[in-house]
């Protein structure tokens, strides 16, 4: 059924005639009459009783007009909602981030985005990189921050952090006063790691393997501040991004640059390559490019 024809029928009834309806709709009267006639033929029943200077509805016409008005109202509401989404007056943005990235980088950016688009609901989820990748692929997140490398066949990427890991040591550790150290020098020190769902867990284990040893893991956590507290309690050593290390209290822990090897900690925003980005997601990525100086591998 032609929505345009329904709109014409409703206007004919509202204006109580074909001539006045044609003026309001700015189309010729023959076109108005033809559209109503086509509806009557399609439905197999007369909708209007045509009188000399006015029209009135038949019983069938009354049902059709009542339903048509509801349909046209729904379509108008739909168009308004879509326009609001496109203009970023409403919508939602679902972001996943490892806790360390949220604290050091994304919090200020989220605040700026909210000020610019207060009608967009921000749904933030803190997870490890591996879980974030799964949630983005499963359509449960629009965009996520993950530690590189990632699968660039599945994800568009927007790198925005280039950092490296540093050793976090108790002040009494024999290497705490050094300016730099080799990872193999920590072979006899227990390690405090992120949990396995965090990419950093695997990165540290792989770096240790390449350095010729398997670390003794004394504890694991999902939170960088608890990892630091365990180091401060002399439970073990940790490897954390320099971005975090700059925030730490030297009275509690010491941080030492890793010289052999240098272990990179690079982070990117990711989204599904095979999915159209929502207006809110595009606006978020545009803001990230402007504020973080990031460059993406795909626009999405």
Please explain how this structure is put together:
- The radius of gyration is 31 Å and the shape is rod-shaped.
- The mean pLDDT is 91.
- The longest helix is centred in the N-terminal third of the chain and has 28 residues, at 59-86.
- It is built from ten helices and twelve strands.
- It is of the alpha/beta class.
- The strands form three sheets. Strands 3, 4, 5, 6, 7, 10, 11 and 12 form an eight-stranded mixed sheet that branches.
User: For the residues shown, what is the average pLDDT?
Assistant: 91
Largest sheet: 8 strands, mixed
Kindly state the percentage of residues in helix.
Answer: 40-55%
Structural class: alpha/beta
Overall number of strands: 12
Number of separate helices:
10
Rg over CA atoms, rounded to whole Å, is 31 Å
Overall shape: it is rod-shaped
Span between termini: 36 Å
Question: Mind sketching the topology for me?
Answer:
Layout: H1 3-15, H2 18-25, H3 29-43, E1 48-50, E2 55-57, H4 59-86, E3 91-97, H5 99-116, E4 120-126, H6 129-137, E5 143-147, E6 155-169, E7 180-182, E8 191-194, H7 199-210, E9 217-221, H8 224-232, E10 238-241, H9 242-245, E11 254-260, E12 264-272, H10 279-292
Parallel strand pairs: 3-4, 3-5, 7-11, 8-9
Antiparallel strand pairs: 1-2, 5-12, 6-10, 6-11, 6-12
Helix pairs in contact: 1-2, 1-3, 1-4, 2-3
